[in-house]
Amino acid sequence: MRKTELLAFLQNQTDFFDPDNLSEVFTASWLARRFAMQRNTASHYLNQLVAQDVLVKINTRPVYFLHKKAFCQQFYPLSRSEYASMAELLAESDRQPEQADHFSLLTGHDGSLRKPIEQMKTALFYPNGGLPLLITGDSGTGKSYMAELMHEFAIAQGLLAPDAPFVSFNCAQYASNPELLAANLFGYVKGAFTGAQSDKAGAFEAANGGMLFLDEVHRLDAQGQEKLFTWLDRKEIYRVGETAQGLPISLRLVFATTEDIHSTFLTTFLRRIPILVSLPDLQHRSREEKEALTLQFFWQEARTLAARLQLTPRLLQVLTQYVYRGNVGELKNVVKYAVASAWARSPGREMLTVTLHDLPENVMAATPALSEAMGQQEPLLIEPQTSLVWLLRAHDPVQGLIYDVQCRVLAQYEAVLIKKTVWEEAQRSMGEEIETLFDRLIFDNHDSSSSQMLLLIAHQVREEYYRLEKRFNIQFNGTASTR
């Protein structure tokens, strides 16, 4: 009976395991006190469950025990039941197979990038080789990265072979020489021009069976655009100097431009591109997305340098409010500069403190008035082994508030399971927690409209009710519940 209660408790608690804030509730000593048993008895039960592949053991000091199935469902699959360190356990996440939907990893995939992603998937899933599409957006918005992501997504979905090529071709390199453009794009045959001593394949043939990304396509003049019509109309090309027979080419074609399409492209060219995708600039993305991107870039730097980064609240405020003319690309470079500056001040140190003084001068010069409350907040610490998901969750005050209440509600239910609390008392306490949460989310919120916040609350409550029903085999009916 004790072993069963121990297991049920760890199953509940593992859902809220945070590797950055290790809790003693996962240790044998704490569990022994919690269940009023000898420490050696608790250790015996725990090690038995590890041997049965039910628990995961992390051999640090102190030793931690996690519920394996709950961990795998909440985080990622584990290959074994014992780990020498927390870092070794976290390293398992890097060995997981890539997700089928690579777009879900993007910051803003469910926000500002939702429509562009839907359009890209439409182009990829269209029968008979998909549809060509044109990506528009200012410099630094991520057009090249999105094209690469489309390629990875297509392979993961089985739309392209695992070894399908991705060829990136920058049209600006040949804008002043149409003949050189055609030769590099379509290839040429021997004798096509002076110096053509043998046949040579171009970018289209190199990308056959995969994806061809034509960047800065606005640099093509009218003649250059017209040379693409043959493939767009018949899916075949002619090498320069070849007139007898076209060469069939099967690929996914993606164009990108920073210019206004109606003043740059032929109408006959645009008619052949059924999907036009517009990527938003950084200033038109939400504050939450900008914060998430900023933290993501700092996280990448921490992993690159294998160093702990401590970020001051004022630094994060400035980086979020600054207007980046170079968009996401400029933000990434500013973060890299700041970390490099902190590294130069303290080379080789295991922890770097990044402050306002590490920012480039142009960013500092444009710094607005800072909130006084920012100076009272604790610095944010990023560990090299920190999970990006956990980092973003910890920094989001709304998610953090919901998470804390969720922990307390589940603790109340766990108390019922082990007969420490009667159901009616726990139900009343859980109701008070949730009512207080709603009050804080609705009436303390100044950044979003009430309707938006209510949508968030409704989504969170539905998700939690579903999880509780599955986990504890209970059924909620309106305001009542049955067990």
Automatic annotation (TrEMBL):
Keywords: ATP-binding, Nucleotide-binding. The keyword ATP-binding applies. One of its GO terms (biological process) is regulation of DNA-templated transcription. SUPFAM superfamilies: P-loop containing nucleoside triphosphate hydrolases (SSF52540). Residues 106-340 form the Sigma-54 factor interaction domain. It comes from the Bacteria. The keyword Transcription regulation does not apply. GO terms for molecular function: ATP binding. This is Transcriptional regulator levR. It comes from Klebsiella pneumoniae.
